[in-house]
Design goal:
The protein has 22 helices and 27 strands. It is of the alpha/beta class. The protein binds alpha-methylisocitric acid and iron/sulfur cluster. The site of alpha-methylisocitric acid (MIC) has 14 residues, from helix 2.
Length: 647
């Protein structure tokens, strides 16, 4: 039987296990990327694991998240990252060079290769035909050292695209449609493969918009074929030699097939506060808008910015609306500066924002109280914009610019007529200047790593006790994201200082959580988290595991859990467990005293542990879904401990 693209790439990289859907396999990682907000911890762990050089074909360290530099902390992290990169053989992309996923697509992505990134939107490079996966920093550190990356061999969903998008309907509307169909829940262990004649109508950056936001579906990654369009894009980036053709065999099979006729799509928006809360722009038309932000790794390519610039040309932003535009990379910024499009954006009254994550991670341009903010980014989780009362809608650049000009939610094709839709061709050659990407040192021994006072050692965990005895330290509902667990925004600067950052765990859910949990830990009381469906959605930030570990959390019991967060919990010795009967969630409340006896024995012998509520005597049977490799880590207290034990 023939293979699909996912199987072709994965099978060529398997180093451990069998390619059977649902089973764990280890794969070789060709390329890695890190960004600064997760990278510092990843490299501290790389050092703690004792590696002396990266063993991948290519590893890049980007600085794009914490570029505000209010205080010394961010700059300290940058210098640490720069010196680590120089010493260990990693390329270093300086702040200002752009957002990791956009720059990687332009300068490094190679069809058919594997990419592991310490950021959940790493699947962006699926647009160029890579198997590109987001993971916690520790998994990326291991891969940089030449270790395998472990994942569940996936089920593959084929999304068959037919037809062609109509004017003013965009790639963003395609992925919003997929989100409407598949939702943000229940897609763990799955990869998406795009296929069909509609693929050839989409440029590589448009494909990347679609694979980027696959992260919001909770799939492991999404991938497009590598075809003539991919070849042209690579050639325009001066990298034609990286091209290979990638297509599914005619008799390839899939676990599920979804068909989307691109010509029937209309502009869509993800409404507050979930990327899966989809409505048509038509339904929202007329809602007054306060802020419009174009940018983020989802929609900040040359094409996206040119659409916005062309639509703004000769017009002015509506009074009362703040428009901000952030190009995804220095390459895009330079191209639109030189061709005059930037001047059209400036003249229309937009604010030009740095080529960085910026507003998307909530570290700047927070909207006003109760604002309606339209953004081309990928996440609108509650409070992520920095303003808890704001209502954030995720839209295409086309819908964003229509709202910026009219001051209300507007169907773009009704405001601009179809014939005015700018035809933006991918240039035959991009401006190529990699001078903000620093090569590693040729004399690594001469490099001393610079550690500012904000950079602490990664905390360690102790081996698992025989029993868990403690309290329900928090009980949370469904779809708790890692943003809920570990807020970013103004707290980001503490990413390298775990005791400080841990003060903000569950800050918005329960401001008393962190101090209560820390006090419990000091008294030897174990903290347990009880959660609903899809716990740990969103960001790959392993701080959502490290900081709870630091506060003495030993067990998370949920109805269901997302892939990256579950792996992060295991890496730091917190047991991820599931209610055998989801209704048992209701048996536990905040501060209830709980106990799980013989937990070590349950884990090693495959017996289902029982969570006993000492307050009401009720019991819940738990399911553990741990592979032998994960069992070792949980028992040892962390991946690092397990690795040391094995030596
Ligand atoms: C995000 O978009 O949520 C982030 C910020 O890029 C995160 C990484 C982080 O928390 O540093 C992600 O997507 O993994
Ligand atoms: Fe940066 Fe936003 Fe993309 Fe995350 S989603 S990498 S914060 S631009």
């Amino acid at each position: 039987m023939g293979k699909n693209i996912v199987q072709k790439i994965l099978d060529a990289h398997i180093v451990e296990g069998k390619p059977v859907a649902g089973q764990e396999v280890g794969i070789r990682i060709d390329q890695t990327l890190t960004q600064d907000a997760t990278g510092t911890m990843a490299y501290l762990q790389f050092e703690a694991l004792g590696f002396d050089r990266v063993k991948t074909e290519l590893s890049v360290s980007y600085v794009d998240h914490n570029t505000i530099q209010e205080g010394f902390e961010n700059a300290d992290d940058h210098k640490y990252l720069e010196t680590v990169a120089a010493k260990y053989g990693i390329l270093y992309s300086k702040p200002g060079n752009g957002i990791c996923h956009q720059v990687h697509l332009e300068r490094f992505g190679v069809p058919g290769k594997t990419l592991l990134g310490s950021d959940s939107h790493t699947p962006n490079n699926g647009g160029i035909g890579m198997i590109a996966i987001g993971a916690g920093g520790l998994d990326v550190a291991v891969a940089m050292g030449g270790g395998a990356f472990y994942l569940t061999y996936p089920k593959v969903v084929k999304v068959e695209l037919t037809g062609k998008l109509r004017p003013w309907v965009a790639a963003k509307d395609v992925i919003l449609k997929v989100l409407e169909i598949l939702t943000t829940k229940g897609n763990v262990g799955t990869m998406i493969e795009y296929a069909g004649e509609g693929v050839s109508t989409l440029s590589v950056p448009e494909r990347a918009t679609i694979t980027n936001m696959g992260a919001e579906l909770g799939v492991t990654t999404s991938v497009f074929p590598s075809d003539g369009t991919t070849k042209k894009f690579l050639a325009a980036q001066g990298r034609e030699q990286s091209w290979i053709e990638l297509k599914a065999d005619p008799d390839a099979s899939y676990d599920k097939v979804i068909s989307i006729d691109l010509s029937t799509l209309e502009p869509l928006a993800a409404c507050p506060h979930s990327p899966g809360n989809i409505k048509t722009v038509k339904e929202l038309a007329g809602i007054a808008v306060d802020q419009v932000l174009v940018g983020s790794c989802t929609n900040s390519s040359y094409r996206d910015i040119m659409i916005v610039a062309s639509a703004l040309k000769g017009k002015k932003v509506a009074p009362g609306v703040a428009l901000g535009v952030a190009c995804g990379s220095r390459q895009v910024l330079e191209m639109v500066s030189r061709n005059g499009a930037l001047a059209d954006i400036v003249s229309a009254g937009a604010r030009i924002l740095e080529s960085a994550c910026g507003f998307c991670i909530g570290n700047s341009v927070a909207p006003k109280t109760d604002a309606v903010s339209l953004r081309t980014s990928n996440r609108n989780f509650f409070g992520r914009s920095g303003t808890p009362t704001a209502n954030v809608y995720l839209v295409s650049p086309e819908t964003a610019v229509a709202a910026a000009l009219t001051g209300t939610f507007t169907v773009p094709s009704e405001y601009f007529c179809a014939s005015t839709y700018p035809s933006i061709e991918i240039p035959s050659s991009f401006i190529i200047d990699d001078s903000m990407i620093q090569e590693p040192s040729k004399e690594p021994k001469s490099i001393s790593i610079v550690r500012g006072p904000n950079i602490g050692d990664p905390p360690s965990n102790t081996p698992l006790d025989n029993a868990i005895k403690g309290v329900v330290a928090i009980r949370v509902g469904d779809k708790i994201t890692t943003d809920h667990i570990m807020p970013a925004g103004s707290r980001l600067k503490y990413r390298s200082n775990i005791p400080k950052y841990a003060e903000f765990v569950f800050e918005r859910e329960d401001p008393g959580f962190a101090s209560r949990a820390l006090e419990n830990r000091k008294q030897g009381i174990h903290n347990v988290i009880i959660a609903g469906e899809s716990y740990g959605q969103g960001s790959s930030r392993e701080h959502a595991a490290i900081c709870p570990m630091y506060l003495g959390v030993k067990l998370v019991v949920a109805k269901s859990m997302e892939r990256i967060h579950k792996a992060n919990l295991v890496n730091f010795g917190i047991i991820p467990a599931f209610f055998e009967n989801p209704a048992d969630y209701d048996l536990f409340e905040l501060n209830d005293q709980i106990e799980v006896s013989d937990i070590r024995q349950c884990i090693t012998s495959g017996i289902s542990p029982v969570l006993v509520n000492r307050k009401n005597g009720k019991k819940a049977t738990l399911k553990l879904e741990l592979t032998p490799r994960e069992i070792e880590m949980v028992l040892a207290g962390s991946l690092i401990n397990a690795t040391k034990n094995a030596k």
